[in-house]
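We both want to read discrete structure tokens more fluently, so let's practise on a single case. Would you supply a protein for us yourself, any chain you care to pick? Would you write everything just below, so we can both look at the same thing?
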Amino acid sequence: MATFGAVYDACVLYPAPIRDLLIRLASTGLFRAHWTEHIHEEWIRTLKRQRPDIDDQKLDRLRRQIDSAVPDCLVTGYEPLIETLCLPDADDRHVLAAAIKSGASVIVTTNLKHFPVDELAKFAIEVQHPDEFVHHLCGLHMGAVVRVVQEQRQDLKSPPKTVDEMLETFLASGLSETVSVLRPFSESL
């Protein structure tokens, strides 16, 4: 079992391409991924604001699929830590509390400024953009990352995507470093 842990913030569980990639990577067992019910509520609330047509039952099913894809992903018992933490946005303290409680060494988020390096260093936790996080995984386990991206692309049916379209989707999602290291493996994707 992997000892390295990461907490996914709500902003990386929506939009779908990043969520799909990160959940698939977490299911490999290369690291332990964590989140909370509160984090689920945040990304679902954001999705519903942008897509009010999506049925609540469909979202509940997606939430269960995400949780079942990654063993021991849900962090509980972190709530007492929240009030003891200091972050620029008090609404983000629950994410740091979950990272502390789960023993994670990384918070994966696009909201880097909400998690100051100095504050997180007190708990031996880093903050990484999903692009940096996946890029690091490529450096450690390139073959596994290539297989995950290949499976993700092959599972897309409505509509299917070519390798170039998949890489463009990642670029549009802010994963430029990841794309730069994946591009030489295009024939395998």
Q: What stands out?
A: The beta strands are 5-8, 32-34, 106-108, 126-128. The longest helix spans residues 130-155.
